[in-house]
Amino acid sequence: MSKFRTAAFGAVVFLGVAVSAGAQTPATTDSARGVKEGGPRRERVEGMRKKRMERGMRQPGMRGQGQRGRRMGGDHVMAQLNLTDAQKTQVRAIHEKYQPQKRTLREDGMTQMRSLRAARQAGDTSAAARQRFQQQREQFRTRSAAIRQQQQNEVRAILTAEQRAKVDAAREAQAKRMEERARQMQERAKQLRSR
User: Fold this and answer.
1) What is the CA radius of gyration of the chain?
2) What pLDDT digit, counting tens, does each position of 22-73 carry?
3) Alpha-carbon distance 100 to 168, whole Å?
4) Alpha helices of the chain — where are they, by DSSP H?
5) What do you get for the CA distance between the two ends of the chain, in Å?
6) CB 156, CB 72: distance < 8 Å
7) What's the predicted TM-score (pTM) here?
8) Is residue 130 packed enough to be buried (19+ CB in 10 Å), middle (13-18) or exposed (0-12)?
């Protein structure tokens, strides 16, 4: 019986050391995802990266930065539209045209958030300060929506009727998903409050 306990204890210690050592070994991002050198998954991943680069979605090394693919219902929708080369060039030009405006708007929004944070940290939580920041936030949203709508209208003008129908269907599906998500969040909040 004691030999069995000793053997069991030894096995547990061995596994613990092995797991601990494995957890401390840094894994490359590709190996952590199961992408093997030259394997089929590796080829698929590289192919997707190449396609994104061809469509101008992201620059290398810009993961999580810059544009997030929310153009006309998302880049995945644009990929399904089978745009001609001329249309792709026009869409790219339209997006580039609005980048300075978006950048300025983003910088203004960040400045507003910094000033709000500084006011809170300074203890300025008066009703007037809250109202001022609420008005600024609403102006930001209005300007952002106007720029986005102008850009979408210009892109929409170069699409065929069939392509516009696909974009509209994707937007409706997205709106339904957002409504469902909002409903689920409200239900979850009610459940948490009732506890």
Assistant:
1) 26
2) 555 454 444 445 444 556 676 777 777 766 666 554 444 444 444 444 444 4
3) 27
4) 2-24, 29-32, 40-55, 75-80, 85-122, 127-157, 161-194
5) 49
6) yes
7) 0.53
8) middle
Greatest pairwise CA separation for the chain in angstroms: 82
Estimate to the nearest angstrom the gap between the alpha carbon of 36 and the chain centroid.
Answer: 26
Could you say which DSSP state residue 34 is in? T
Supply the DSSP string of 71-108, one letter for each residue: STT-HHHHHHT---HHHHHHHHHHHHHHHHHHHHHHHH
Q: What are phi and psi of 54, to 5 degrees?
A: -65, -35
Q: Give the tens place of pLDDT for each residue, 118-174.
A: 888 888 778 888 888 889 889 989 999 999 999 999 999 999 999 999 889 988 999
Q: Which residues contact 55 (CB under 8 A, 6 or more apart)?
A: 75, 78, 79, 88
The CA distance from 47 to 43, in Å, is 6
Contacts of 171 (CB under 8 A, 6+ apart): 73
* 132-138-143 Cα angle (round to 5): 125
Torsion angle of C-alpha atoms 145, 149, 155, 161, degrees rounded to 10: 130
